[in-house]
What does this fold into?
Amino acid sequence: MFAKTYGSTTLGVNGVLIDVEVDVSFGFPGFDIVGLLDTAVKESKERVRTAIKNSGFKIKQQKVTINLAPANIRKDSPGLDLPIAIGLLIAYGLIAPEKAADCLFAAELSLEGDLRAVNGILPMTIHAKERGLKKVFVAPENANEALLVDGIEVYAVKNLAMLAASLTGQETLPPAATRPTPPDNNVRETEDFADVQGQFLAKRALEIAAAGGHNVLMVGVPGAGKTMLARRLPSILPDMTRQEALEVTKIYSIAGLLQNNAGLITDRPFRSPHHTTSATAIIGGGTIPRPGEVTLSHNGVLFLDELPEFGKAVLEVLRQPLEDGQVTVARVNATLTFPSRMILVCAMNPCPCGWNGDKDKACTCSPNEIKRYTRKISGPLLDRIDIHIRVPRVEYKELTASQTSEPSAVIRQRVTKARDIQLQRLRKFHVICNAQMSHAVLKKTCPLSDNAQKLLERAFDKMNMSARSYDRIIKVARTIADLAQEDEITEQHVAEAIQLRNDIGLDL
It folds into this structure.
């Protein structure tokens, strides 16, 4: 007898519907699964057969052939265990075929028949809804994730026996509980800009970066507070929209970084990989490409501390994601494009000993040592970073001051207002912040006053700017004007933008 059910796997950041075709016929007993299988799926036949037996079903030893279509997509999800098991029970006549006609089954099976959670349930459920399926059956740990998708019934099932009883009408399985209330986005981490004493220029630079989505490089002596500042940047970023939250949740679901029963991710990501991280881990990869750090920080912050300690090859692969907001990874089995629209924040010392340029402590590094230290940071990469600032050592009187700094909540209000202005202006161009503007969009939306144009012309000649640097200064100036809620970019806005991209003392 022939049977067909629906399972799913993931490809990139999207789900892919898999037709599970099961044929049971007379002949020499056997159990074969075909359809470009990964190891996890090849092993499923042992899990499925044992789970069916331990769930109380007795089936004859016959020739079983299972085809997972389409055959040109590699299947690597253990979540195909459940649709294979249901397909077998239908083929043996234990479940009516129409009961599974509009259902997606996605769960791993234990040898006892219990359903286990799998990665990527959210994109699987989204795709199932797009393909017209009405129901999705998942493990209880995946229920909250599947419930994020409207317009499809979600059922949380503990074991295979319970699911079979529900499909045969012996038991009534109620839909999973209503979607839980998302966590309050106003409840932030304890890290707050109020904890940062002094460093007014750096805090201003990060406010501008948050408002316009600009990349930042901080250069300063050890202990100046670069890492402290960077880790507080998410606290002043505006709340994610539901669409942004869904994008982040899909990525983290596929990467297996969602906790059990986790719902929508509402806090912006903050990723801080160690400097020993490989280029593949940064950009993504594998036999079937998986998201890397640039994708895991999508709609959030990617922080690279001790920038020169990263391998040169690692830093150079950042060029495309910084420029395009996405990264394409090509492998033998697939070529996939991952989103990578994030704010890059880099921190580094000016030299190996860290004290080059300090007014009180002498640097012990030779010019050649400084050159070797900084040469990993290429000109093209530096050109893609909008804001370059020096972070000086904090003075004693600033550390001991009784007056607290401005809290993150107040700064976030200004940032959110600036983002709203940008969204209204840029909505028709399908971008959401100033950093994402192309040259054509920039020319249409960034009018400069006459004095501002003259100042920028002088700076262009004196600083030997590239065309990319020219555009990025205007983008930063546009953000500064948005924070001031002014329509025209004036000389003051351009002057501050130039100051934020001035010489940072690196011998590149």
